[in-house]
Amino acid sequence: MKIINKTRYAILGVLLAGPTSGYEIKSLMGRSTVYFWRESDSTIYPMLKVLTREGKVLPETVYVGKKKKEVFSITESGRREFKAWLDSPTGSETPRNEFLLKLFFVTDRQEIFRLFRERLDKMEGIHEEYKKIEERLEGIADFSQKAVRLKALRYGMALLESEIQWLNEEIR
Amino acid sequence: MKIINKTRYAILGVLLAGPTSGYEIKSLMGRSTVYFWRESDSTIYPMLKVLTREGKVLPETVYVGKKKKEVFSITESGRREFKAWLDSPTGSETPRNEFLLKLFFVTDRQEIFRLFRERLDKMEGIHEEYKKIEERLEGIADFSQKAVRLKALRYGMALLESEIQWLNEEIR
DNA sequence: GTCTTCATGTAAGCCGTTACATGATTAA
DNA sequence: TTAATCATGTAACGGCTTACATGAAGAC
């Protein structure tokens, strides 16, 4: 079984909302999917070329004022591929949790404490960020996916909260 | 900032418990760290060579009955490097959660339901596995890290349980 | 005798990150 | 006029996975 590059689905997913340029995809992801799906800066443009060659997206040159940009629309074929991915079994990422790796090997009590403390700080920071995003999202006028996105966000927050609580109890 | 290969720390961590062969490291990881730190089969041996060249581990040929194997011990320099890693700030993995990526783009109610259902099944499966590991661990005679490892395991279980509960409530 | 486990690797190829490169437009 | 943002990429390097390879010892 081959590993299939999933960057394409992230891009196609963004394009479902309408024609978008590479730069817009990049900045949009930087404000939304980063928290659960991070793409490196340089992956978007090459992938758009590939998708164009494959007929999954359609490029078009557009001028906004004097600025030129390439916007891409998703094609029927692209929609089909996206849908097929959605329907397919969701793969698991290879687990790589450095915090747990350290915890597994640690012996010193002091060190355990430090690890928990460090983890707690980080989780609380992320929770703060999520809260801000939640407020921003709540303030936005309704759009088709608002409810699901809030749900997904609160799912993430609920998990963070239970982790934070657990860590607090351990640190005591 | 360079990405530093962390396979080395996983290996050094295993060696802290005593001299171990590549094969033993591999199978040990397959029974323990896989759940939070997965190494591909082929990474162990080359890394052991690298660590040998660097003087972090010391190889020795040992015969068990007629079977020959190379066991590796951690050196003082290796211990220092391991300790330095433990003390250093824990990096965050790049987030890559395909489940959340799908959830972010999904619009169809039926599809959302299917995603939750699929996720729930998977999380329950993992929880089952953890429970078995817990039982096995509890049955083992005390060793220096038993308490921490149980703690880490239960931390993972607690998180799984809150996720399972959340999903159940959503599916209703 | 055959299958499983022990035991140790190599090679090809994709993936992903970092750093590098370039230039236009707009806001302060 | 200077900085930030818009806009689009390329190249090098390292990491990781998959598949391939080999062979001995012990269990059944």
Q: What descriptors fit this protein?
A:
homodimer; 172 residues; mainly alpha; Arc Repressor Mutant, subunit A; 2 domains; 7 helices; 62% helix; elongated
What does the secondary structure layout of this molecule look like, with pairings?
The structure is a homodimer of 172-residue chains.
Chain A: H1 7-15, E1 20-21, H2 22-31, H3 44-53, E2 57-64, E3 67-74, H4 76-87, H5 98-105, H6 109-139, H7 146-171
Antiparallel strand pairs in A: 1-3, 2-3
Chain A binds a DNA duplex (28 and 28 nucleotides) through helix 2, helix 3 and strand 3.
Instruction: Supply the CATH class of the largest domain in chain A.
Output: Mainly Alpha
At CATH level 3, the topology of the largest domain in chain A is: Arc Repressor Mutant, subunit A
Shape of chain A: elongated
Helix content of chain A: 55-70%
The span between the termini of chain A is 47 Å
**Count of DSSP helices of chain A?**
7
Q: Please, what is the CATH homologous superfamily of the largest domain in chain A? A: Winged helix-like DNA-binding domain superfamily/Winged helix DNA-binding domain
Q: Identify the CATH architecture of the largest domain in chain A.
A: Orthogonal Bundle
